[in-house]
Amino acid sequence: MTPRHLELGRRAEALAAAHVEKLGWQLLSRNFSCRLGELDIVALDKKENELIVVEVRYRTIGEMQSPSDSIGPKKLRSLVATGRAYVGEIGWEGPWRIDLIGITASPRDPETLWRLEHLTDITAGNFPV
Predict the structure, then answer these.
(1) What local confidence, expressed as pLDDT, does residue 124 receive?
(2) Which of 38, 48, 49, 95 is the most exposed, having the fewest neighbouring CB atoms within 10 Å of its CB?
(3) Using one digit for the tens of pLDDT, what is the confidence trace for 56-86?
(4) How far is CA 36 from CA 59, 75, 122, 126, in A?
(5) Cα–Cα distance for residue pair 39/15, rounded to 1 Å
(6) What is the Cα–Cα distance from 101 to 53, expressed in whole angstroms?
(7) Where are the beta strands (DSSP E) in 1-129?
(8) The pLDDT value given to residue 88
(9) How much is the pLDDT for 11?
(10) 116, 17 Cβ separation under 8 angstroms
(11) How far apart are CA 76 and CA 10, in angstroms?
């Protein structure tokens, strides 16, 4: 049996992927991993010709940190390093950025009550070393 938090995390990633597709972006990869880390979603915005790495965070309302507050400098460095590895692996030479999709659920009913927040370019184009 899958632990509940893992199942909720998968559902949050599925909601985020559906959101990305509604934006008209092409899903390139889900759960890409290498020795540097993991990328939840990688998508291509063909209109802007930009690659987007999407970090998905799930939280329950009332937890100590919001989804956006849960990403610290160490996680950002990992996302950038893993993003660079992905870009190199596929030979992408265009612009790319890192977005965050936060999924928040009600503690009374985490199965059905969800809120989605999409923050674009969380590094503001400045990739930490």
Answers:
(1) 85
(2) 49
(3) 988 766 555 555 667 888 999 999 999 999 9
(4) 24, 11, 19, 19
(5) 16
(6) 10
(7) 26-34, 37-45, 50-60, 96-105, 114-119
(8) 96
(9) 84
(10) no
(11) 21
Task: Out of 3.40.1350.10, 3.40.50.300, 1.25.40.530, 3.40.50.880, select the CATH number for domain 4-68+93-119.
Answer: 3.40.1350.10
- Do residues 71 and 122 make contact, with C-beta atoms less than 8 angstroms apart? yes
The type of residue at 21 is: E
Per-residue tokens: 11: 């559902």
* Secondary structure class of 25 (helix, strand, coil): coil
Report the SS3 class of residue 124: coil
Going by their DSSP bridges, the two strands 26-34 and 37-45 should be labelled as antiparallel
Residue 45: count of CB within 10 angstroms of its CB: 16
Pairing of strands 50-60, 96-105: parallel
Burial (CB count within 10 angstroms: exposed 0-12, middle 13-18, buried 19+), residue 67: buried
Structure tokens at 65: 């940190």
Q: How far is it, in rounded angstroms, from Cα 57 to Cα 5?
A: 12
| Residue 55: φ, ψ to 5° | -90, 130
